[in-house]
Amino acid sequence: MTQTENAWGAGPGEGYEALSAPFRPIFAEIAASAAERDLNRGLPHEAIRRLKEAGLGAVRLPVEAGGKGASLPQFFNLLIELSTADSNVTQALRGHFGFTEDILNTRDSERRGIWFGRIGGGEITGNAWSEIGAGAALDRFSTNVAENKEGRLVLNGAKYYTTGSLFADWIDVGASNADGEGISVTVRRHAEGVEVVDDWDGFGQILTASGTTTFRDVVVEPQDIVIDDERFRYSAAFYQLVHLATLSGIGRAITADVAKAVAERRRTYTHAAAARSSEDPQVLQVVGRIRAAAYAAGAITLQAAASLQRAFEAHFVDDADAEEKANAIAELEAAQAQTVVSDLILDASTLLFDALGASATKKPAGLDRHWRNARTLASHNPRIYKQRIIGDFAVNGTPPPYQWRIGASAG
User: So which domain of life are we looking at (predicted)?
Assistant: First the structure.
């Protein structure tokens, strides 16, 4: 069935159904075992392999480069569908999608050509940016690139929350060079000196391999180093929109699970409004409220995605002021969307239990994973700061910060 027939609204762009059709059977397979994987901590190696082979990692690339030429609204709608199947998989690929967006924006034709070939050929990239300590918040990474005794450039350091790197072919690393500049470095995932450990111990998104990666004298090629300031300008909004698409997909998964459980439920209460939950108007009201929340979350996410499309297009017009304005608006729209979508899906992930009995809390049912995953995603990039930034813009016209870091206070 199409999105329209499922009452989720028409997919963005006339070509969306054709774009999504090859992926939907894979999404269905991923969904069928999602709860079991979460229960047994089964990492989604096979799911990601299937998606790589199907070309999901290259959907934003031009057709002539092996991609599908998807717009950003189409891309994020596809992520909503993937997240409906398993939000862990979307999160595990988030670093790759952001890296690909950077390649699409680069003015370095040689770099673009190299990576179009790699990404178009099915290779994916993980990320390694977060560090522990004060330096990370000030763009002074402890992880660094320097010359060794043989005159080769080598990478050394440790990174945390390296989501998806365990599944990747390459790792995109935030580092400092000998001059103290912020740089990004790409190295082979299986290069000598690279170690990726699945030690993520959070209660949600447990299958994303968001663990620790260490680099010990990993050889770096000069062409794989980029000054951090040259990264794509709407990156903060883009990475936030991946979270919102993931949350929107969780909302749809909650809708499907609760509707199925209510339809199949035989137990009832003497004081219920009907003999069957599927006929109980109060229970149906709960299910309807959940579905409406999922619908709204998706619509809001796609509205914000349109602002990212405008920022992307502004990058290729020779008008620096217009590009800066488009980037600022994209960040604001993403922030506004974040504050609402997070609330909608967190509420839905709790509300679903009001439509069911206590038996729904049994671990094998896997329904708790929706709240755990949504709560984990909604804890990224705290909403309280985004709300302040939005308010400051509304009252004082203050533009949002272009980029930000997290780390221990220097004080």
Answer: Bacteria
Average confidence score pLDDT of the chain: 93
CA 38 – CA 366 distance, rounded (Å): 8
Q: What is the reported pLDDT for 393?
A: 96
Report the domain count for the chain: 3
Query: Same domain, yes or no, for 39 and 108?
Result: yes
Please check whether residue 318 lies inside any domain of the structure.
yes
Instruction: Name, in order, each residue with C-beta under 8 angstroms of 254's C-beta and a sequence gap of 6 or more.
Output: 290, 294, 345, 348, 349, 352, 370
Closest to 172 (Cα-Cα) out of 269, 136, 317, 164? 164
Q: Which of 124, 153, 168 is the last residue of a domain?
A: 124
Q: Which residue has the higher pLDDT, 257 or 223?
A: 257
When mean pLDDT is compared across 80-94, 287-301, 355-369, the lowest value belongs to 355-369
- Distance CA(4)–CA(338), nearest Å, equals 25
Structure tokens at 368: 């708790």
Confidence of residue 407 (pLDDT cuts 50, 70, 90): low
Residues 118 and 132 in one domain: no
Q: How many CA atoms lie less than 13 Å away from 234 in the CB half-sphere?
A: 33
Rounded to 5 degrees, φ, ψ at 22 are: -65, -25
Whether residue 391 is found in the same domain as residue 330: yes
Look at residue 3 and tell me if it is in a domain. no
Provide the CATH number for the domain around residue 46: 1.10.540.10
Residue 319 tokens, joined: 């008008």
Rg value, the chain, Cα: 22
CATH number of the domain that residue 171 is part of: 2.40.110.10
Q: What percent of the chain has pLDDT over 90?
A: 84
* Token pair 């043989």 in the structure block, residue: 150
Q: Note whether 390 and 248 are same-domain residues.
A: yes
pLDDT mean over 15-37: 97
In a shared domain, residues 285 and 363: yes
Structural domain of 156? 127-230
CA atoms within 13 A on the CB side of 410: 7
Local structure of 325: helix, strand or coil: helix
Distances in Å between the Cα of 191 and the Cα atoms of 43, 85, 225, 269, 295 are 22, 32, 16, 60, 44
**Sign (positive/negative) of CA torsion 259, 337, 245, 200?**
negative
